[in-house]
Protein 1
Amino acid sequence: MNFLAHAYLSFNNDDILVGNMIGDFVKGKQKDNYPEGIKRGIMLHREIDTFTDAHPIVSEAKQVFKPLVGLYSGAFVDVAFDYFLANDIHEHSPGDWQLFSKNTYLSLAQNEQWFPEKFAQLFPYMRQYDWLYNYRFIAQIEKSFMSVLKRAKYLDNTINVAPLFEKNIPFLGKCYRGFFPELKEHVLQKLDALR
């Protein structure tokens, strides 16, 4: 999953949030360099990714992007699912999502000493341009797609993924609605086990 899902699935626990948000930037046993709470967040991040990557509904969603981006299709599904989460009124109203985003940035800013270098470089932009709230808009999803393309070593970064996303919004939305409640339940169980 992408940044919004990782933040949301931290369930307002600051240490878990920090670990969950920096998880992609902490490799292997580097997690042991962090306090216990943040370490649990990093482990939760990895658990979310493992569950997501192995889920059959996510495999179906990947087929939308696979002809264009091949093995990177999972990264594009992650971004797409943040669009549906940001618009999911069963989880939050738009106003609540805005408040959630602000509180997330505040919590993260209070823990900047734990940021790996790459996340430390990224965070000011995330906050300034309010990525978490703005995932609800297609324009932000397009920017996120371009960001994935820039980071992908083996993809032409001029590929235009956005039309493929927009054409398949009904199908991808159905995939999100089938998948996210299962992910949320799984995370709640894992959080209990990590305590």
Protein 2
Amino acid sequence: MNPNMATWEVVLAGAVAALLVMFFLPRLRESMKRSSEQKEKDWRGALIPLLLVVIFVILLVSLV
């Protein structure tokens, strides 16, 4: 973390992180359980937009 942060800020950041983990963990477990019950995976629906973003970023880098 930032060495200029006060102790109370570090403790507060840790507490917020712990609360977020405790808040999202049950929902994450349910989501993982539901996703494992599905039989067919649609990888193409995720890979095509990701590939388009990669191509767009490469295009932007090559134009600079």
Protein 3
Amino acid sequence: MRKALIIDDENRTRDLIAKMINSFGLDIEAIPAGENVQSGIRAIEEHRPDIVFLDIQMPDGTGFDLLKAIPDKNFEVIFITAHEEFAIKAIKFSALDYILKPVDPEELKAAVERALAAMNDKRDERQFEALQNNISAQQKRRLVLKTQESVHVVDLDQIIRCESDRNYTSFYLTEGRKILVSKTLKEFETLLIGYNFIRVQQSHLINLDYVDRYNKGNGGSVVMRDGSEVPLSPAKREIFFKILENL
């Protein structure tokens, strides 16, 4: 049977999450052990869990500090957090999972099922390296893109544009690279919109740093520096030109 370890500084939260998980009827036993960074590290060494539910804010540090202290992370990580927008965004950029307090049973079960399914995939230390980078306000954000074959860690200034195809998104990068990810463009728009990206049409999100020119023909389009041409929606025209003026 798989093991899930819950590390949180609130006894009630630890016990509640453990009770919920054990009631789901999944092939996993929940252990509520670890109330801070130091006791959490000891609990991981003792129980060798398959999944770790990890509180972000603890008395002696953060869940990020705990991860940094563990060299071999042979487990899936699900963060437990309140509405801490900066931390949540860093977690999403790093393609890691989280649940919000107060914990919703259905969201918790879905998170456990995702973690159990992900155990068959190869874990990649670069996700945690990207996380350490993304939680620092001084560092440039790095986006983790997971495909069926591998994990890619991409600097935002390497992304020229993104294009959607139903539930998939293609990333067009510098040096002619292309990465296809099984996530919607809307998910990436939510992450990237504050970093000089704009959705110029339903299927297209572009990096304004790579805009070469605007082409009036064919109803209006944006020509990117790699030569690609992206249609500009009439509804987005005014905001696009306003942003360009302020660059």
